[in-house]
Structure formats: C-alpha cells, structure tokens
Design brief:
Helix content is about 40%, strand content about 25%. It is built from 15 helices and 17 strands. Strand 10 (about 230-235) and strand 11 (about 240-250) form a beta hairpin. The longest helix is centred in the first third of the chain and has 37 residues, at about 130-165. The protein is elongated and about 145 Å long.
C-alpha cells in the first residue's frame, strides 16, 4: 500500500486492516495507549508487557487524564489540543509529557495524538523513561567530570605555587623526549632565562657542549651510581658551573625525571645563606642600590632608589637608562661605567640625581663591574644621599683660585675700563669651570670636554690659555686628537 499527501489530505490506496485488527496493531506499535472521550476522561488503557517500569495503570480508567500529568505537561497538552482544533487536517505530531502518579512517581512518555469518533482521542505513546535515565546518568557523569576537572585544576595550582615558592632549584624532565616539562623560578635563574623561555625546550640545550642522547644517558647513570650521584655541567646562557642531582619517579604509569640544581660557586662559599642575606640587604638598605646591564639600563633597583627618584614602583624605572636620572646625563654615566670597567670599581663619584618630578639631590656614587665568569655584562651602583656641602671631588683648590683671581680683578677697578674688567672676570669664571670639570672627571679631558659642551681641541686651547697644561703636554694631546 502506498500513502501520499495532497493539499493537506492523506491519500490512501490499497487494503488497510479492518477494525478487528486495529487493537492489536496499537498494542504492538506503542508502549502505552490511552483512549479519552471528548471530556478527556480515560475510557481505556493498554500497557505493553515489555515495559514493566510503567506498572499497572488500571486505576486510571474513569478518571480525568489531566490528573495524572504534571503542571507543566497539562499546559503543554492544552496548547497542542488547541492547535489541533484550529488545524484539524494537520498530521499528528509527537508530544512529550510527564506523568505523575501518587505524587511521587513520575515518568515521561512521548505520545502521538489521533482523533477518533465523537471528539474522542487516542494517545499512542512510547516510554521515555529509559532514555531519561540514560540522560540523567550522562548528566551525572558530566557533573562528576567537571567536579574532577575543578579538583584537578586546584591540585595543579597548588603544585605550581609550591614548586615556584620552593627555594631549591627544581627541573622536571620527560626522559623519553629529554625536554623540560616544568621548572621553578630558582632553577630558571641559575640557567639564565625565564621559566616560560625554558619550558618545553630540550634540557641538554641549556648547557654547554651537551648532546641530548649523551646527556640523558649521563643522567640515568648518575641515578644508578652509589657515590657522586650528580653530574657537573655549565649553563650555556651565563656560564655558571652547576651540579645536577637526577632522580626518577613514576606518575600515572609514566616515568619522569626530577633534577635538583646546585651552583658550584654557592657550594664553595662558606655561608650557604649568603644569597638570602644579600637579597635582604638589597631590599632593606638605606642607600639606593641599582643593577644595570652593560649599557647602563636599569635591571633592578631597591626601595631606597625609588624613594630618591619619586618613582611609585620598579616598573616605572626598569629598563630605562640610568642617565635619565643623572644631572649630567650620559656624561656622568659614561664616565662611571668606563672607570668601573677599567678599574673594576669606582668610589666616591659626586653628582646630582634627578627625580621623575625634576627635583635634584646631591649624591655620591660607588660602582662595581659585575661582569664575572663570562656572564652577561652589568654594573652595580650604590647611590648615597649627601649634604650639599659634601662634594668630595670639588676640593678646595677652585675656591682658593677664584678668591685670588677675584681680588686681582677688584684691584683693577680704577685703572682699567669696564669692558676690560668684564673680560677679566669672564676669564676667572671660565678658569674656575674648567678646573672643576677636570677635577670631577678625574683629569679625564675627554669627559671634561663633553661635560662643558666644548670640543676636545677647544678644551686643550683653554687649558693652555689658563696655564692648566704645559705646552708639551698640550701639543701631545692635540696631536692625539688629530
């Protein structure tokens, strides 16, 4: 038999079952069948014996069908029946409703609603309780999985916090691939890089002259040794000699390698707490302490420097040139760094420090070259606030010279014109400035010329003019300039 729909009407052809076969067809094709009269009173009910979860429902007969529905299902069914009345020729569509019996037992059923004679309705339904139970189990599994994931994230956060807070340098390595799985900040500091830059890289690449296969084999051999269960390596980034103490462990059936790092230079020190003490000194010192790279850019600064420069926090000054905070800018910085490079240290350099607001304070700076063991170049500077009268490099000579010179000028009053007096005074001031610049720069004439804003050749001429340099030395310097 074929069935087609034309213009909203079902077209039937062939032979259909007679009325005697309809009851068996309904019982076989549905789990539950309910026959309602026009007042929605249950006239008859049939339950498939293969659905024992539905139970015995013979007490439904003669009662209102709505009395066995939940509140939401009553509204849902009423809306569907109203739609069927408005469109009587529409093909039946399934509807899912929830039955409630004895106020405690609920089960969902998907019904298809069919019209019968005299406004009666036949509801053929499929028990959705097994599907609902599967959905509930899936929902419970999803909730449990989300709970486990949240617990796992909490455990991972706890692990990362403890790992990073540990003062012991620790590196976790995947022994199969030889790559760094995780490491803490203490280990990254010894290896001369940030943790993010090292994580995921080959562990052997962090050290000089190490191939991956040979390096991993050396670590395995060290774990099996009875004595000297470590290997000695040199960090590739900062040439720091280290010792690695490897140890294997198993997690979730997989093998991992835990390596504890130790600086050989720290081991040779007499006080193992030296690093902690130095860090405490750096943080709480009353004098400003600044660490720079080889070009004079600030890498670290303590609280005293921030107070002296009126900076709110370290990021306001970090990576900025130290010359930004010196009164004579690059002249001061270049002179200090060159002296510290040649002599390894510089002591008592007098200058002025400028704050971010433009205020100035007289300071005395000591500098040291921190370029050790072939590592990255850098300098450490201690900046001390001094009273305005405390200018060690100023000396007494310029004051004495200026006093005698000014007396000589005063003696000329009455014997020379005003133009001659002003010219003589200008020479005195010029000589005083040149003498001060030469003394502040430690007789470094290149730096003195840069400080005064004149060329080196002009400085040599003025030095000879004021008798501050011999003709022979002047000629030699001039020749060197050429």
């Amino acid at each position: 038999m074929t069935t087609e729909k034309h213009s909203g009407q079902w077209f039937r052809a062939g032979v259909l079952p007679d009325a005697s076969d309809v009851l068996g067809l309904i019982e076989q094709s549905s789990d539950i069948a309910v026959f309602l009269n026009k007042n929605h009173i249950i006239e008859g009910i049939s339950v498939n014996p293969e659905c024992p979860s539905l139970g015995c429902l013979d007490h439904w007969v003669g009662r209102d069908f709505n009395s066995f529905l939940t509140e939401e299902s009553r509204e849902k069914l009423a809306i569907r029946l109203q739609a069927m009345e408005r469109q009587p020729n529409e093909a039946p569509r399934p509807i899912e409703i929830n039955h409630a019996d004895n106020t405690a037992w609920e089960f969902p059923v998907r019904y298809s609603i069919h019209r019968a004679r005299d406004g009666a309705l036949l509801l053929a339904g499929r028990d959705m309780q097994p599907i609902a139970e599967v959905q509930q189990r899936l929902l419970a599994e999803q909730i449990a999985r989300e709970r486990d994931q949240q617990k796992l994230r909490g455990e991972e956060t706890f692990y990362r916090v403890v790992l990073d807070a540990s003062k012991t340098p620790i590196v976790l390595v995947d022994p199969d691939q030889g790559r760094i799985r995780n490491l803490n900040s203490a280990a990254a500091m010894l290896l001369g890089a940030k943790p993010d830059a090292l994580s995921g890289n080959a562990f052997a690449q962090a050290f000089e002259g190490r191939r991956r296969s040979e390096f991993m084999e050396a670590l395995r051999s060290a774990t099996e040794a009875e004595e000297h269960r470590f290997i000695e390596v040199t960090s590739r980034r900062n040439s720091l000699p280290l010792r690695l103490y490897p140890e294997f462990f198993r997690a979730a059936g997989k093998l991992f390698l835990l390596c504890c790092l130790e600086s050989v230079s720290d081991e040779d020190g007499t006080n193992p707490q030296m690093s902690t003490s130095l860090l405490s000194l750096f943080t709480s010192a009353s004098d400003a302490i600044v660490l720079t790279d080889g070009k004079g850019n600030i890498r670290e600064a303590n609280e005293a420097f921030l107070i002296m420069t009126d900076a709110l926090q370290l990021r306001d000054v970090k990576d900025r040139p130290l010359s930004d905070f010196l009164a004579r800018g690059m002249v001061d910085l270049k002179l200090m760094l060159e002296s510290a490079t040649k002599r390894e240290r510089l002591k008592g350099y007098a200058t002025q420090l400028m704050s971010v607001a433009g205020t100035r304070v007289n300071v005395e700076i000591s500098a040291a070259n921190l370029h050790k063991n072939g590592g990255e170049p850098g300098f450490g500077l201690i900046i001390r606030d001094v009273q305005p009268v405390e200018m060690p490099n100023a000396g007494a000579s310029p004051a004495a010279v200026s006093e005698d010179a000014m007396k000589s000028v005063m003696d000329l009053v009455g014997t020379a014109s005003l133009k001659q007096l002003v010219s003589a005074t200008s020479d005195v001031v010029e000589k005083m400035c040149i003498e001060t610049a030469v003394q502040l720069t430690g007789n470094n004439r290149v730096a003195a010329a840069e400080m005064l804003g004149v060329s080196r050749q002009s400085l040599y001429v003025k030095l000879r003019k004021h008798g501050l340099i011999g003709d022979e030395a002047s000629d030699t310097d001039s020749g060197g300039e050429k």
